[in-house]
Design brief:
Blueprint (H helix, E strand, L loop, with lengths): L1 H17 L4 H12 L4 H7 L9 H35 L16 H15 L3 E2 L5 E3 H4 L19 E3 L4 E3 L5 H9 L4 E10 L11 E11 L4 H16 L5 E8 L2 E10 L20 E10 L1 H6 L8 E8 H9 L6 H4 L2 H4 L3
Parallel strand pairs: 1-5
Antiparallel strand pairs: 2-4, 3-4, 5-6, 6-10, 7-8, 8-9, 9-10
Helix pairs in contact: 1-4, 2-4, 5-10
This protein binds zinc ion.
């Protein structure tokens, strides 16, 4: 009896050790040895025929055998099921999980580009509050109350009592900066501005501006032209030409509207109709001028000693021209089919 138990033990452990075929094969071995009619179960049934003095020893040996076989079957099952699970997760024919990468909003992208360009010319970037006071939005910029020029600046008021409003341009940051800093300096001011315009393809009640201001001892109109020409050529290509049309802004004198040659027809429309410039050959991109001495007085500078120039452009306008966007509303609708293109 003892010899049989030893033989079965060797055979069983060998068979289990050699088993490779997975969960089902391990289960059939478990049935073969430990099942209701299994080899080890049969051994227990034969205990009756063992003599009384041998019985405790034989019983112990069968129990050891049962434990050994159970343990090695469990180990084998754990190994084969692990291998099967690992096999399932590396099915190389399955399509991979795709992750969409976001893109930078075209307006942010345009502002970054404008900033980088002016930083390379020695400007620094300055920002200011979006909720402004009448004082900075109008008075310091030579736009007195009751002055007809204020009509051009329809404004969202936050509080009439406190005279606070959503800034209608980025220019108040000019005077805020000048009050705290001494010339010479060159700054640009990107930011959101607000005007109660009805929304259509070319108007939005909220849009972005970049304002520029250079003040120093001997800043001339030619410096303004040189700076803006450099900007236009970097932004729209070396072929871009520029022209200044006389205009009026309360905070600059003289003032000019700045146009660039049409980026579609190059300013030479062969046919009367160019879809971009409508045959005019020029595209308006910004307003500019020499800082009005009254603005210098408002911030405590001596207009006899310092001069400067300022310019302001609409970021959406620049982006529309640069990327050929047909409707300003696309920028704010957050339709990913539009945004994904940038
Ligand atoms: Zn054109």
């Amino acid at each position: 009896m003892k010899d049989r138990i030893r033989l079965i033990s060797e055979e069983a452990l060998k068979e289990i050790g050699a088993c490779q075929a997975g969960k089902d094969a391990v289960e059939s071995l478990r049935v073969k040895y430990l099942g209701r009619k299994g080899i080890i179960t049969e051994l227990f049934k034969q205990m009756g025929s063992v003599s009384a003095e041998e019985r405790p020893e034989v019983g112990r040996l069968i129990n050891v055998l049962k434990e050994d076989v159970t343990r090695s079957l469990d180990e084998k099952a754990a190994l084969t099921s692990g291998a099967e699970e690992a096999g399932e997760s590396i099915d190389v024919t399955l399509p991979g999980a795709s992750r969409r990468i976001g893109s930078i909003h075209p307006i942010t992208k345009t502002i970054n580009e404008i900033n980088a360009l002016f930083i390379s010319l020695g400007f620094r970037v300055v920002e200011g509050p979006e909720i402004e006071t009448e004082h900075y939005n109008f008075e310091t910029l030579n736009i007195p109350l009751e002055h007809p020029s204020r009509d051009a600046f329809d404004t969202f008021y936050v509080s009439f009592e406190k005279k606070t409003l959503l800034r209608s341009h980025t220019s108040p940051v000019q005077t805020r900066f000048m009050e705290k800093n001494k010339p010479p300096f060159a700054i640009i001011v990107p930011g959101r501005v607000f005007r109660p315009d009805a929304t259509d393809a070319s108007h939005s009640f909220m849009f972005h501006q970049v304002e520029g201001l250079v003040v120093g001892d001997d800043i001339k109109f030619s410096d303004l032209k040189g700076t803006l020409t450099t900007f236009a050529r970097q932004m729209f290509g070396p072929e871009a030409r520029m022209r200044f049309r006389p205009s009026f802004f309360p905070f600059t004198e003289p003032s000019a509207e700045v146009d660039i040659s049409c980026i579609v027809c190059g300013g030479k429309p062969r046919e009367k109709r160019c879809s971009m410039c409508g045959g005019k050959g020029w595209l308006e991109i910004m307003g500019a001028g020499m800082v009005n001495p009254k603005v210098f007085e408002a911030v405590g500078y001596d207009p006899e000693k310092v001069t400067g120039f300022a310019f302001g452009m609409g970021v959406e306008r620049i982006a529309i021209l640069k990327y050929g966007v047909t409707d300003i509303r696309f920028f704010f609708e957050n339709d990913v089919r539009f945004l994904r293109q940038f």
